[in-house]
Amino acid sequence: MPNIDRREFLKLVGAGGVSVGAGFMLREANKDPREYLIPHVLAPEDFSSGLDTFYNSVCSMCPAGCGISVRTREGRAKKIEGNPAHPVSQGRLCTLGQAGLQALYNPDRLTAPMRRTGEGESASFEEITWEQGLKQVGDRLDLLRAARRGNRVAFLTQGVRGHLAQLFESFMRQLGSPRLLHYDFDHPHTLYAANQQFFGESRLPYYDLANTRLLLSFGADYLNNWISPVHHSLGFGESRQGRADVRGRFVQIEPRMSISGAAADEWIPAKPGTEGILALGLAHHIVAEGNYSGADLGAWTNALADYTPDAVAEQTGVPVNTITRLADSFVDTTPSLAIGGGAAGNHSNGVDTLVAVNALNYLVGNIGQEGGLVLNPEPAGPAVQQHRASYSAMVELAEAARQGEIDILIISGTNPVFTLPPAAEFAEALAQIPLVVSLSSFLDETTALADVILPSHTYLESWGDDFPEPGVGFSVGAVSQPVVSPLYNTRGTGDIILDLARRMGSSSVMPWQNMEEFLKYGWRRIYQRGDSQTLAQGFDAFWTSVLKAGAWGETTNGSTAFTLNPDVIAGIGVAPPEFSGSEEDYPFILHPYLSPNFHDGRGANLPWMQELPDPMTSVVYGSWVEVNPVTAEEMGLSEGDLVDIQSPHGQLRVPVFVYPAIMPNVIAIPIGQGHGEYGRYAKGRGVNPIEILSPLLEPITGNLASSATRVNLTPTGGRVKLVKTGGVSRDLGRDIVQHTSLGVEVSSAADNSIPITEVTT
Amino acid sequence: MSLFSRFMDGWRKYRKPGYYDEFDYHWTMTIDLDKCTGCEACVTACQAENNIPVVGEDEMAKGREMQWIRIERYWEGEYPNAKLSFIPMMCQHCDAAPCETVCPVGATYHNQDGLNAQIYNRCIGTRACAVYCPYEVRYFNYYDHEWDSPLEQQLNPDVTVRGKGVMEKCTFCIQRIRQAKDVAKDDDRRRVQDGEMQPACVQTCPTKALVFGDRKDHESQVYKSMNDPRNYRVLDELNTDSSVFYLKKVDA
Description:
The complex is a heterodimer of chains A (about 750) and B (about 250).
Chain A lengths: L5 H25 L22 E6 L8 E7 L2 E7 L12 H4 L1 H5 L9 E4 L6 E4 L2 H17 L6 E5 L4 H14 L4 E3 L6 H11 L6 E2 L6 E5 L10 H13 L7 E5 L5 H5 L2 E3 L6 H14 L8 H7 L5 H8 L3 H13 L3 E5 L9 H14 L9 E2 L16 H12 L5 E5 L3 H4 L6 H6 L3 E4 L13 E2 L10 E3 L7 E7 L12 H11 L11 H13 L4 H6 L1 H11 L2 E6 L8 H5 L17 E7 L12 H4 L14 E3 L1 H6 L6 E7 L2 E9 L7 E6 L25 E2 L4 E2 L4 E11 L19 E3 L20
Parallel strand pairs in A: 6-7, 6-14, 9-10, 9-12, 10-11, 14-15, 15-16, 20-24, 21-23
Antiparallel strand pairs in A: 1-2, 2-3, 4-5, 4-16, 8-13, 17-18, 18-19, 20-27, 22-23, 22-27, 25-26
Helix pairs in contact in A: 4-17, 5-17, 6-13, 9-11, 9-12, 9-13, 11-12
Chain B lengths: L2 H13 L11 E6 L8 H9 L7 H5 L8 E7 L6 E7 L8 H5 L5 E3 L5 E3 L9 H5 L6 E2 L26 E2 L5 H13 L13 H5 L5 E5 L6 H6 L4 E2 L11 E4 L1 E3 L1
Parallel strand pairs in B: 1-10
Antiparallel strand pairs in B: 1-8, 2-3, 4-5, 6-7, 9-10
C-alpha cells in the first residue's frame, strides 16, 4: 500500500467527490429532458416564472441605430424590445428590428471559417480553422505592407459609425491604403450633399416631427425606411394625437403612395423627379405673396423668378391651386417642416431637389425652430473621415480591380453584388481580385464569390457602439454589447480586424486585444466629457452605467444660429430630371422602393419577414409590380398576370398587382427579393429590380439615380396566383374603419380634457 | 348536478350584467386609427412573443396564416384621390363572445379579467369557434409546425407551443399579465399599476397607436382613451361587447 499522508488523502477524496459529481451531472445533462405542458390560463398558485435577464444594446438591422433591450432566459435571446431610455427608439421598435432574433438563430448562418476550393462550376467551400484563415489573409497583408504596397488592399464595409469605423480607419492607415469604402444602397448621398451646400455641414439635421403642425414630405418615406423610421413614427404619433390642442397635418408628395403616403392627410402625385421644382414653386408663391421679408429678399425673388405656379404646374402635373394652397398653409401654419429624400433624391437632379426643400424651410423660418429642423451638434463619437461610397466610387473600385490594382478586398456587412446594378460589373471585378475576404455572417451573393470567409458574429453576439446619425438634437451614444454567447465558431468583426492588424505588425499602434478593450479605451474620452460627479466615480462605474442604461446622452443643444451663404441663393434651381431610355420605347418610369420587410434585401433571409404581409398589398413570399388601375385596364391586365419588364439594361418577369395609388405612367417594384444566394428562405424568390436599373448618375455626388430608369411592359399571357392575406380591399359598407371629420379646434387653455375632434357619426 | 346544468349555471353567472365588477381587472385595449401607419411592427412582435409558427408559402396560399394580429387595409376612392386606411385586427376579447357559446368542450371561456381565454389542451379542433367569430381572428393549427433548428432557441418559455388540431388566438399576452400580477402580489401591492405591463404589440408600436390597460382603473391611460369621443367598436351592432376600442381616423 502506497504511503499516503493525511494531506494526500484529503486531496484524493476531494477529487473523487468532484468527479462523482461531474459524472452525475453529465448523466443528468444527457438525459432527454422531461417535457411539461404548463397552461398559463390558470397557473398553479406556487408557479413562478423563470427569471429574465435584459441586456441593453443597439439594433443593427438598419442604419437608424435604435436602442434595444433584449430579453434573455437561460442564455438564449427570446425577444427584442425597444430600450425606453434610448432617445431614438424610446422603447419602440420596427418590424425588422423585432426580427433581429432570426438573424441570430438563422439556420443558414456561416458557422466556421471557410476557404474556396476549385474553380468555376466545381467551386465549393471547405472548412478551415481560424488560424489558417487569419494566417492566409494576415501574411499577405503583411507582405503588401512591408513592400509598401498596402494601397493594393481595399476594404468595403457597410456604413458603420462609432469606434468600429475608427478601427477600420486606423487599420487602413497602417496599410497606407485610401481604399476604405462604406457602401449602402440606400445611403442618402444627395441629402448629405444638399446639406453641405445649404448649411455648410455634411450632417443630417434633426427633424422635429413631434412638434410640427404641418409636414410636407417630398418623396421621403419617413415612416418606413427613411433615415430613422421608429423615431419619425414616434414624432408622427405625437404630432397627430399627442397634443391636446392641435393635430399635425401631413402631406406627402410622391409618384407612388408609400406607407407614409397612406398615413398622410393628403397625397399628391407629382411627376417623378419634379419634386424639387414643386418645392421651388411653393417658394416662389411664398416670396411673391410677400410672406418673406429677409434682407436677402431680392436675391430670392431673382432666383425663383422662373418658378411661377403656372410654369411649375405645367412641369410637375400638380394643379396651380394646390401649389398656392400648400404654399399659403406652409406659411400660415407654424411651426411647419419640409423634408425631402427617398425617390425624390434619387434622380439626376437629386441634390438640387433637396436644396430646394431646405430653401422652403429657410423661407418660412423653420430652421433651428422647435417643430422645424434643428441642427445637430457635432456627434460625440470618434472623429472619422467620410468614407461613404457612392455608386461612382464603387464603379471606380471595380475598374481598379479590373486593372489589377487590387490584391486583397475585404468585405464586411455589405452585399454589393446584390445591391449594385449589373451595369457596375462588380461581380466580374471581384473575379479579378486575387484574394477576396468576406466577413459576412451569411452566405450572401457577394460572400459566395469570396476566396476566404471569416464569418463575423451577428450584432447580438458582438461588442460595438453607435452614435446615431442624425442625433436627436443633442449628443447620443450607445454601446452594443453581446446578449448571448456566440452560437458558432465565429468572431466579432472588430476582433478579426485587430487580429489581422497584429499579424501585420501593427500592434504598437493598435495594441488592443479585442473590441471590448478598444471600446473601453475609446469611451474614456467620452467619460472625460462628464461632470465632476461622473468623474469622481471613476471610469468603471461610468462604463457599467452606460452598459446598464444602454444609452448615453448630453443635453447640450446644437447651435440654433444659422446664416445662409448668399451664394446658395444664386445657385438655387432644379433642372428637369433625366431618364434613361426614350419615352417612345420605354413608356413607363420604374419606381423601385425599399421594402418595409427586407430593407435593401438584408431581411429576406428572415422567415418572419418573408411571411409578413406587405403593408400596402398584403403580398407575402414574392415580388410584384404595381400598376395603375386605368393603365392595367387599358392593357388588359389584372392581378397575377405575368408581365415582362424591360429597361435599356435588363429584363424581369413579375406578376402584376393593380395598385390604386400610383401614377399611370409609373410602375413600382419593391427591392429586397430576388436573391440568388442568402439561405433557404431568401434564395430563388421574386425578382430584384436593381438588376434592371440604368447606371444614370446624379452628377454632384455620383449617386445612382435609381428612380430614373424607363421601362416597358409586355404581357406574357402567363398567370400566377399572388400569395396574399388580404381579401376584398374595399370596405363595402361594413364600416370597419370609421372616420370622423376634424371639428373646431379647441384651445388647450380652456379645457384640456376636450379632444380636438368632434364626432359626426 | 349534471355537467350540463353546471355549465349553464356558470354561463348565466358570466352573462350577468355587472359580473366583472366583482373582480379586480378588466383588461382593455384602444387603437387610435389616426396614429396607426400600418407598419406591422405589432405583427412581428406578437409572432416573437407568442411562439407563432411560420407556415410557409403553400399554407399561406391556402389562407392558413397564423399571425394573431393582422393589419387590414381598405382602399377608398380612385386615383388620384385614392386613400388607404389600416386597421389592426386581433381577438377583440368580447365580453359576450360568440365563440364561447359554441365550443362543445369549453376550451374557450371567459376569465375573471375579461379575457377570452383558450385552453389548448382542452381544444379538440372542431373549429366551430372560428366559424362563429365575426372578426375572423382565430387560427387553427392544421399541422404540427416546426422551427428549423436553431430557430427554436428563440421560443418564449412562458408560452406553450401549440400542436396540430388546436385552435389559437390573441391572449392579450396573458403570460405577461400573470407575471405582472405575480410581481404586484409579491410587492404587497394590491393591483397591477397602469403601464406596468403591456402586450408585445402595444409595447413595440412605434406611433403609440395601441394602448392597453385596466379599464377599472379610471386614472389609467386606456380608460381615458376608450372614453375619447372618437371611440367605436368594430361590428358593434353584433353586441359582442368587445374589449378593443378603436378611435376613428380623422379626415382633415
